[in-house]
Structure formats: structure tokens, C-alpha cells
Specification:
57% helix, disordered N terminus, mainly alpha, two-stranded parallel sheet, 2 domains, 14 helices
């Protein structure tokens, strides 16, 4: 963000960080039974939708029942993936000491093994958010999503790779912890990934067996329709998750950083990086629930272990704080954020869309913003 170095001093960065720490502490002090009741009600709703959806597929010979079944199953998978699984596995409910809400015990209804995901997402992504060569969520190892990523002819296929990733998103997340691009470069050895691969095999066998063998067979002659219904529900969840996640990370105005720029980072600088490297999506209450409240990606990156239901309540205060310090607060409706992401995917496929670090401002070790 050009000119930011003129508006934010190192002292202001740390004062900004202290204000966010205080906000976090106020929320933590207020956590209680209402948060537990919310997530338990949501889990009951998700399970009810799954039972309803699978039940309706037994009447799949009647088109409206099949459509309703697929819709209910799709909603169930979206809730399980976004507002329940993602957030529980972030440790947002570990403070309750309730076993079924433990981040270490929870397993979600998707191909990615929870243990692998906790490493690639909770640790790698949230520690190194938007740090080039460290945060592997920048492009997921297959896309060019930042102009500071060196261009290669391979990236001419950027739009095609993005479309395939959207369709098969749960498969991409499942394979993410294999770090295939590092294997190709010789930075990792296949044997080092023995446990990661074993978890992938076990989880994939369970999910594929359940979705495409067991449940279709249970519906007898309707097995092909049930298989199609399950595949459609998975596709719906994949496309939705891809859209929400990419709109929170890759609209035009979000920034990236180098390892050098984030060396010896203070708490205030870490908060600043989350603000600059995230974007929100506007919408109503139901939209926020279905997005897992990742429509409040800024608040999530600032406070990943706070219950996501709290993000809409603190978003106005976070935004007001950013405005007082002259910091950007990227937000917009889904269609605008999607258009911005799509434009970036297409433009970064081309070789002339790179930029020199001197063309942008950067987060320096002393907390100021200056040309690199």
C-alpha cells in the first residue's frame, strides 16, 4: 500500500497490536455457554441435514426428492467443512474441554486427513500468511497467484488449473501436505512422507468407500442416482469452499511479503501482515454461517483460535481501528471479490505481469513500510 510508510510509525504498529490484543482478551473473557450451545446446535443441524439428504436419495426415482436430497446433503457438507470442521480444528472450542469439540480429536467429512490439514493450514498457513516461499496456500503449489512468483511457461495454464482445483478442491486439500512441488525440486524425499501418505490412504479409502460404494449400494437399483447425488453434493461443497477461500486471500488489493521482510517480526507486525494480506466478503447472517465466517477472513487471520461466530461482532471494531491507523480494510460483495480473483488468475498466467520489489512497499524489520 503506497504511502503507508508515511502514516504508520514503528510505535504506531505496536500500539495497533496492543489494541488488537486487548480486543482478543475481551472476547476470550466473554466466552461461555452461548458459544457451546451455538456449535452444538450447528452440529445437530448438520447431522439432521445429512440424514434428510441421504433419506431423500432413497426416493431418488422421484426427481424433486433427488434434487431436495442433493441440496440437503450439499448444505450438510458445507456446514461440516466450513463452520464446524474448519473452526473446531482451529482449536476455537478447545477451551471447553469437551472431547467432541477438541481440535485434536475432530475429523471432518472430507478427503483431507485432519492431522495433515492441521499442519499445512493451522501451522504453516497461519504462521506464514502471505509470505512467499513459506505460505504454500499462495497458489497451492499449482497456481501463480502473486506477481512476485517467478513466471514460467507452465503458468499459461493458470485459468485451467484454477478451474480444476475448484472442481476437485477436496482432492487438492488432501494432497496439499505432500508438498509435491518440493518433491519435484528435490527439496523433499518421498520416504519422508510415509506417515502423511498413510493418513491420506486411510482417509481416502473411508471417504470414497462411503460416498461411492456403500451409500449407493444401500439404495439398490437407485445406486447410479445416489452416486451421482453424492458426487454433486461434493462438487457443490468444493466450488463453494474454493470461492470463499480464494475471495478471502487473493483479491487484487491483498499484499504478499518475503521472508526477509518478516524476519524478527513483532506481535504488532504480525497483526499488520494479517490485515494487509486478507480480505472480507460482505453478506447476511446465513451467508456468513455457510462461509464458516471465513467471509470475515481478516478477523479470522487476526484471531484464528476465537470462535468464528464472534467475528461478525468484532468486525466493526477491527475496521474502525484500521481506519484510525490509516490501514486498509479490504472488503466487498462476493461477486466483486470473485471477479477480482478471476482477473488475477488470468492476468498472472502471462509473463509480463511480474513486478520488482521496488515497485511496491514492504513490511520492514523495524515495523515501518518502505520501498524494498
Amino acid at each position: 500500500m503506497t504511502g503507508l510508510q508515511d502514516r504508520l510509525t514503528p510505535e504506531q504498529v505496536e500500539a495497533f497490536g496492543r489494541e488488537l490484543d486487548e480486543l482478543r482478551q475481551r472476547v476470550v473473557a466473554d466466552l461461555g455457554q452461548a458459544d457451546v450451545d451455538y456449535i452444538r446446535k450447528l452440529i445437530r443441524t448438520q447431522r439432521g441435514l445429512e440424514v434428510l439428504g441421504r433419506g431423500l436419495l432413497f426416493a431418488g426415482f422421484f426427481p424433486p426428492a433427488w434434487v431436495a436430497g442433493v441440496a440437503a446433503l450439499s448444505l450438510s457438507k458445507i456446514l461440516d467443512n466450513m463452520e464446524i470442521g474448519h473452526n473446531v480444528m482451529h482449536g476455537q472450542y478447545d477451551w471447553t474441554r469437551i472431547p467432541e469439540l477438541s481440535s485434536r480429536r475432530f475429523e471432518w467429512d472430507t478427503l483431507a486427513p485432519a492431522e495433515n490439514w492441521r499442519h499445512s493450514h493451522n501451522y504453516v498457513h497461519h504462521t506464514y500468511t502471505n509470505v512467499l516461499a513459506k505460505d504454500r496456500d499462495i497458489g497451492y503449489g499449482v497456481l501463480r497467484m502473486d506477481p512476485d512468483q517467478p513466471w514460467h511457461p507452465y503458468y499459461l495454464g493458470n485459468p485451467v488449473y484454477a478451474a480444476l482445483l475448484a472442481v476437485f478442491f477436496q482432492w487438492g486439500v488432501m494432497l496439499h501436505d505432500l508438498e509435491v512441488e518440493r518433491l519435484v525440486r528435490g527439496e523433499r524425499r518421498w520416504v519422508e512422507l510415509r506417515e502423511v501418505r498413510a493418513r491420506i490412504r486411510r482417509k481416502a479409502a473411508r471417504q470414497i468407500g462411503k460416498e461411492y460404494v456403500l451409500f449407493p449400494l444401500l439404495t439398490g437399483p437407485l445406486a447410479p442416482l445416489t452416486l451421482l447425488g453424492n458426487a454433486t453434493a461434493n462438487l457443490t461443497r468444493n466450488l463453494w469452499a474454493f470461492a470463499i477461500i480464494f475471495c478471502g486471500h487473493f483479491p487484487a488489493d491483498v499484499e504478499s511479503f518475503t521472508e526477509e521482510e518478516t524476519a524478527n517480526e513483532t506481535r504488532g507486525q504480525w497483526y499488520l501482515r494479517q490485515i494487509l494480506g486478507s480480505a472480507n466478503i460482505t453478506g447476511g447472517p446465513l451467508f456468513h454461517v455457510l462461509s464458516g465466517n471465513l467471509s470475515h477472513q481478516i478477523e479470522h487471520h487476526l484471531f484464528p483460535d476465537l470462535p468464528a461466530r464472534r467475528y461478525p461482532r468484532i468486525a466493526a471494531e477491527v475496521r474502525e481501528t484500521c481506519e484510525r491507523y490509516g490501514l486498509p480494510y479490504h472488503t466487498g460483495p462476493l461477486h466483486r471479490q470473485l471477479a477480482s480473483v478471476a482477473k488475477k488468475i488470468v492476468s498472472l498466467a502471462l509473463p509480463w505481469t511480474g513486478r520488482r520489489r521496488a515497485d511496491r512497499t514492504s513490511l520492514t524489520g523495524d515495523g515501518s513500510r518502505s520501498a524494498a
